[in-house]
Write a structure and sequence with these properties.
By secondary structure, the protein is mainly β. It has strands spanning 4-10, 16-23, 27-31, 34-42, 69-76, 91-99, 102-105, 110-113, 118-122, 127-130, 136-144.
């Protein structure tokens, strides 16, 4: 799925303008049936809004930079199950299902999410499974958080 990304900024007179408008090109396909597109990232709080760097071109792991954020869109093929990929990050994650049906598994609970459903993950261990017949499209915003020591479960970086 091509994702159009529009980035705004300011000209020399501090008038608002579009800096770039085109497809988000930082796409990773590190697992069969799963694509992740980095839309934007920040590496400080408060965030620098005047940098000329295209923060969507960064190479990041799962977690955002320290004190930063990571905004990405994932595409998960039908019936793809990440049960062996149970993981956690030291982040607050805002998750929005755009298309499809996604099962979220936690240590003690499981629920199925659909279009428009949102989740606030607070450093909790989880895994995902596309339980539908169409590609699931999910937007994630990960925000760096305080560290939480969970016995037997290291946070992913």
């Amino acid at each position: 799925m091509a994702i159009r990304r529009v980035v705004t900024g300011h000209d020399e007179n501090l008038k608002s303008m579009i800096v770039s408008d085109g497809p988000a090109a930082n796409v990773r396909e590190n697992r069969t049936g799963h694509r992740s597109t980095l839309i934007w990232a920040t590496d400080s709080a408060p965030a620098n809004i005047t940098s000329g760097e295209d923060m969507g071109d960064r190479a990041l792991g799962t977690a955002p930079p320290p004190s930063g954020t990571r905004f990405c869109v994932h595409e998960i093929e039908p019936h793809l199950d990440y049960q062996p990929n149970f993981h956690r990050t030291d982040t607050i994650d805002y998750v929005l299902v755009i298309r499809g049906r996604l099962a979220m598994r936690l240590d003690q609970d499981e629920t199925v999410l659909g279009p428009g459903d949102m989740v606030i993950l607070r450093g909790t261990a989880h895994s995902w499974a596309n339980v539908g017949d169409e590609t699931c499209v999910v937007a994630f915003v990960l925000i760096d958080s305080e560290r939480l020591e969970v016995p037997g479960m290291e946070a992913r970086q």
